[in-house]
Amino acid sequence: MKFATFVSLAAFAASGLGGASGANATDVMKSAVIDHPAEEVWALIGEYGHLDKWHPAVVKLELSGDGGNGLFRTLTLPDGAVLKEKLQSYSLDDMSYSYSIVEGPLPVQNYVSKITVRPGDTAGQSVIEWSSSFEPAGVEEAEAQKIIGGIYTAGFDGINDKLK
Question: What are the two backbone dihedrals, phi and then psi, of residue 59, each rounded to the nearest 5 degrees?
Fold first, then answer.
């Protein structure tokens, strides 16, 4: 698997994330080329309630919510910390979904993220793009970007491990 990393300080207006937009807003985007077809990768990661099946930092996942309030996933991390996220949009056709963090231990606020899978430039490969917009909370911008970027990289590693 090859990784291409992009950390952008530009607004994500064009991406439609619609997350943090204040003076302290920052963005992170990482992408990875996976040596498996996009449909195979999406079959693994496309189910919003299956993050625990491929991300090594999630030891337990519970879905909750009803059609009126949205769909939530509560993630338990290895240290017992809990993170609650809300599904914002989902597109089977575009192989993408976006979500926001409602509460949790990460040093961010107004966090909105999008994960997308698309075919790669070479037959049998795919590209995963994982991006977010947020405001750092309690840490410097570079530290928040490093933490979020590390979560994405760990996710890419987990996907690659599951598809071996």
Answer: -95, -20
Decide if 71 contacts 48 (C-beta within 8 A): yes
SS3 assignment for 108-157: EEEEEEEEEEEECCCCCCEEEEEEEEEEECCCCHHHHHHHHHHHHHHHHH
The total of structural domains in the chain comes to 1
CB atoms within 10 A of CB 37: 16
Q: What is the pLDDT of residues 26-36, one digit of tens each?
A: 999 999 999 99
CATH number at residue 116: 3.30.530.20
In whole angstroms, what separates CA 4 from the centre of its chain?
15
Which pTM was predicted?
0.85
Range of the domain at 111: 2-162
Look up residue 34 and give its two tokens: 């996976």
pLDDT at 9: 29
Tens of pLDDT, residues 132-164: 999 999 999 999 999 999 999 999 999 999 999
Burial of 103 (0-12, 13-18, 19+ CB in 10 A): exposed
CB atoms within 10 A of CB 27: 21
